[in-house]
Design goal:
The complex is a heterodimer of chains A (about 550) and B (about 325).
Chain A: E1 11-22, E2 25-37, E3 42-46, H1 53-59, E4 68-77, E5 80-81, H2 87-93, E6 98-101, H3 105-108, H4 115-125, H5 131-144, H6 150-153, H7 163-175, E7 181-185, H8 193-209, E8 213-218, H9 221-227, E9 230-235, E10 238-244, H10 245-250, H11 255-262, E11 282-291, E12 294-304, E13 309-313, H12 320-328, E14 335-340, E15 343-344, H13 354-359, E16 360-363, H14 367-370, H15 377-389, H16 393-406, H17 411-414, H18 424-437, E17 442-446, H19 454-471, E18 474-479, H20 482-488, E19 491-496, E20 499-505, H21 506-509, H22 516-524, H23 532-540, H24 546-552
Parallel strand pairs in A: 3-8, 3-9, 6-7, 7-8, 13-18, 13-19, 16-17, 17-18
Antiparallel strand pairs in A: 1-2, 1-4, 4-5, 9-10, 11-12, 11-14, 14-15, 19-20
Helix pairs in contact in A: 4-5, 4-7, 7-8, 15-16, 15-18, 16-18, 18-19
Chain B: H1 2-31, H2 37-42, H3 48-58, H4 64-76, H5 84-93, H6 102-137, H7 142-156, H8 159-173, H9 189-222, H10 226-233, H11 238-267, H12 270-276, H13 281-290, H14 294-321, H15 324-327
The chains are: A alpha/beta (about 550), B mainly alpha (about 325).
Chain lengths: ~550, ~325
């Protein structure tokens, strides 16, 4: 007779209500959500930023951040009520039976201690294993997670280890006591695609190997499709729907879920090829650039034609933003030149005329920090209007209103608002309006959608596409997200380590054969197919993905 | 490590340069003091001839630049010249002229001051750090508030007041400690310590607040960091979170505040010395200014400046060493 499977859930959250303090009042963050997790199961928690994913994940550990309180409902872990349990009881569970993997491993490892010392802390303090045994186990886990140099890497400090490796070391640390439950809070969001894939496969392996239950929090649907058995969708603190992964992907019930799924389908048709002999609007010609003595750009050349979008892709540190700095004149190149309409631009922005400056504008990744928090929306947009076009008084106001209309924000409502009174997407729109105010012909968009949720990001991309058609703008689109490239680019430039490794029209880019690095980048982008990661691993083998493959090139 | 060594050597060179600049400032400032030694010692009987004679004897008639360089040259070799007051006294009695050297006059006083500073620091620094850590641990509790009120009131009260309160409670009402700290050269260490304890306690009250509050603030500042949250989520006790995870990362600002307070203990204790009749360098300094005994004033100033520079330098270097990024470069 076989033993009946243990059906008591590991985590049982019922009608949980969580408030966050804002000024002097408590506002609800989570409005009555239920969550059940069986042993060995992986639950994916998805939603936009502000949906309360992390708050719910932490609540499953019986933990709330400062300024957050649980106002109702219950959280049970293996029959223990975490909301009424004493601090000592909870401390005994945390780290030992419930572990946490944070979004930014670089910030979540203590900079003052070596990795291995942080790894053994939980087992030693919880009295599970001695220092020595636990350190040996750590090395074994590092090896399982395919960290390079497992014997030695633990003796380094966090700043001496790369982001992807730290994220795996943190997963190893979470595993140090062989917990029953791990909360993964966006563990790969901050990583490059090629690094992400390695971390994903490492996490998936180790979770399966030890039959650990997990709550996997992310905003990336394709990632959650690889990792989770079941998916729960959250929207503004409420559950939208829950289903097992395949059902959720193939047959979502709710409109909101469907709209999330549909985002990735936005793709504007590529424009016809440029006629031979046309003078490009911007030409980057054999540019070398350096920060101090360290050379970061090597012979970079590409053209951007009028009315076209060139996407510059590559991982962090590949020289994308540096190229933008050369074009804007913030970083004068040490060799080569920038041509605008066929005429060379002075290398240093201080030597450029006002009209030359006006033609090239920038939109930044972090709209939060790119807008002066003490200036109203109207002032922010009026500044370039007055500076470049010399408009004042009523004419200035009219121009600002027109610009606000162009970015689909009502001037009457938004003119006097401060940036702190805007959502992330609205801030980015203000950034766009500020760039448009100069009436440029060329705009550099530096990762403009990477800090935004998918629905909002799609709105921004559609807006940029519309503005391009109306005003025949040219864009240089810096991004590491290939979905964005697919959506908006006409041509693609792939960069790696300061070199251009491949360039050409979008259609060619997404069709083989291409440069090995481009191939690696493309193949590393998670797809919505839940079998994608398994298939890829089967097809290529663990040694031919991620950083390991990059190093081989 | 080569990296750190270069930084240390750079700082040392810079420190020496600062000291040189300070020596110019001291020399000029002291020489700008109104009145001079000859006039103040001769008092009402000063005739132009006798004033000129004394000035000539002491070299005060030389141009300032020449006097600066002869002073600096001497100071570099550890010779701070002769005390004016001692020199003239020696002339009257005809005794050995070596007794008038500034170095000889300052040395025992400086040793006493260093002893007092060391005893005070040995009490105050651990006391302040422990209080700071506990205040951070029980932040916003009654204990935290009481600690803050206590240290803030002690730093806000005049030093002589604190001294008299301590004398009242520890010497008069409960005669545990002596109220007068008349220490001399060949005293046993334990006696010396006993006599020094009351001024040291007074100084402890004066300097604790600054160090304690910086410790508390530096730790609390880090408590919202992701790695502190991580430590909590690993189930670590609040004390361990603060001592093991927050404190090592909060050391740099704490070290700097400790250094400033140590420098204060060496240079700013005149009032406490006067109250307890403690024969330290502060009293000597004030007396020398009163008599326009320029060589002694200059030497004291230079020692004070050197103490500040040296302690800040040490603090800089220790802050650098407390940063693993600099200790273990990539």
């Amino acid at each position: 007779m076989t033993q009946a499977p243990d059906t008591t859930p590991l985590v049982k959250i019922r009608d949980i209500r969580i408030d966050g303090r804002s000024d002097e009042t408590w506002l609800p963050i989570i409005k009555g959500v239920n969550l059940t997790l069986q042993r060995g199961q992986v639950l994916g928690l998805i939603g936009e930023s502000g949906a309360g994913k992390s708050t719910l994940g932490l609540a499953a550990m019986g933990y709330t951040r400062d300024g957050v309180r649980i106002s109702g409902g219950s959280v049970e872990f293996d029959g223990i009520d975490l909301l009424t349990a004493s601090a000592a009881v909870k401390r005994d569970l945390l780290g030992k039976r419930i572990a946490y993997v944070a979004q930014s491993a670089a910030a979540s490892f203590n900079p003052a201690h070596r990795l291995i010392d942080q790894h053994v802390e939980a087992p030693v303090q919880h009295g599970i294993a001695g220092r020595k045994d636990s350190a040996e186990d750590g090395i074994a886990l590092y090896r399982k997670l395919r960290l390079p140099n497992p014997e030695e890497i633990g003796f380094r400090y966090p700043h001496q280890v790369s982001g992807g490796q730290l994220q795996r070391a943190m997963t190893a640390m979470a595993m140090s006591c062989r917990p029953d439950l791990i909360i993964f809070d966006e563990p790969t969001t901050a990583l490059d695609v090629t690094t992400q894939i390695e971390v994903l496969s490492a996490i998936r392996d180790i979770v399966a190997q030890y039959n650990t239950a997990a709550i996997y929090i992310t905003h990336d649907l394709a990632v959650v499709a690889q990792m989770a058995d079941r998916i729960k969708v959250l929207l503004r603190g409420e559950e939208v729907e829950t289903a097992d992964t395949r059902t959720m992907l193939t047959a979502p019930v709710q409109d909101y879920t469907k709209s999330l799924w549909a985002v990735r389908s936005f793709e504007r048709p590529a424009k016809p090829a440029v006629q031979k002999g046309t003078v490009p609007l911007v030409t980057v010609q054999n540019v070398d650039a350096a920060y101090g003595k360290e050379k970061v750009l090597h012979d970079v050349s590409f053209d951007i034609h009028a009315g076209r979008t060139v996407a510059v892709v590559g991982e962090s540190g590949s020289g994308k933003s540096t190229t933008a700095r050369c074009i804007t004149g913030l970083l004068p190149p040490i060799a080569g030149q920038i041509l605008f309409d066929g005429a060379p631009l002075p290398p240093d922005y201080r030597k450029r005329s006002k009209d030359q400056l006006r033609q090239i504008q920038m939109i930044y990744q972090m709209a939060d920090t790119a807008l002066n928090p003490r200036m109203s929306v109207g002032q922010i947009i009026a500044r370039p209007v007055q500076f470049y076009l010399g408009l004042t008084g009523k004419a200035k106001r009219q121009r600002v209103d027109a610009l606000l209309n162009q970015i689909e924000l009502d001037p009457a409502e938004y003119y006097n608002r401060l940036p702190s009174e805007l959502s992330g997407g609205q801030k980015q729109r203000i950034g766009i309006a500020r760039a448009l105010a100069a009436e440029p012909r060329f705009i550099i968009c530096d990762e403009v959608t990477s800090a935004l949720d998918q629905l909002v990001a799609e709105g921004i991309l559609r807006l940029l596409a519309r503005l391009q058609d109306e005003l025949s703008l040219s864009y240089m689109f810096i991004t590491h997200d290939l979905a964005t490239v697919r959506a908006i680019a006409d041509e693609v430039v792939v960069m790696k380590d300061g070199h251009v490794v491949e360039q050409g029209p979008k259609a060619e880019m997404f069709r083989p054969p291409h440069h090995a690095y481009t191939d690696l980048l493309l193949s590393s982008v998670p797809e919505m197919d839940p079998d994608w990661l398994s298939n890829l691993l089967a097809e290529r083998g663990v040694d031919n993905i991620g950083d390991a493959a990059v190093n081989k090139l | 490590m080569g990296n750190v060594l270069t930084i240390i050597l750079q700082r040392l060179a810079l420190g020496f340069l600062t000291l040189l600049v300070v020596s110019v400032v001291i020399f000029v400032a002291v020489n700008l003091l109104p009145g001079d030694f000859a006039q103040s010692i001769l008092g009402q009987g000063a005739t132009p001839e006798s004033v000129a004679a004394i000035r000539r004897d002491l070299g005060l008639d030389q141009p300032m630049v020449a006097r600066y360089f002869s002073w600096l040259g001497g100071a570099l070799q550890g010779d701070f010249g002769s005390s004016f007051a001692q020199a003239s006294f020696a002339n009257f009695t005809g005794s050995d002229s070596g007794a008038g050297s500034v170095a000889q006059q300052i040395a025992p006083r400086f040793a006493n001051t260093m002893f007092l500073a060391a005893v005070s620091a040995a009490i105050a620094v651990p006391f302040a750090l422990v209080l700071g850590v506990l205040a951070a641990l029980y932040r916003n509790s009654i204990f935290d508030r009481a600690t803050n009120i206590f240290t803030l009131s002690s730093i806000s009260s005049p030093e002589f007041f604190l001294a008299y309160v301590l004398i009242l409670f520890l010497a008069v009402l409960n005669p545990i400690l002596p109220s007068v700290s008349n220490i001399f050269a060949d005293m046993a260490f334990s006696d010396r310590l006993e006599k020094t304890l009351l001024p040291a306690l007074t100084l402890t009250l004066v300097v604790t607040a600054h160090m304690m509050r910086m410790t508390r603030a530096a730790i609390i500042n880090l408590l919202s960091s992701p790695y502190i949250e991580m430590a909590r989520l690993k189930g670590m006790s609040p004390l361990r979170v603060i001592v093991h995870h927050a404190l090592p990362n909060a050391l740099a600002p704490i070290i700097n505040v400790v250094a400033i307070n140590l420098a204060y203990l060496i240079t700013g204790v005149v009032v406490v010395e006067v109250v307890f009749v403690y024969p330290g360098i502060g009293q000597l300094f004030v007396d020398s200014v009163k008599f326009r005994d320029i060589p002694v004033v200059q030497a004291c100033c230079l020692i004070f400046a050197a103490a500040y520079i040296l302690l800040n330098l040490t603090a800089d270097i220790m802050s650098i060493l407390s940063n693993p990024r600099l200790r273990h470069p990539k």
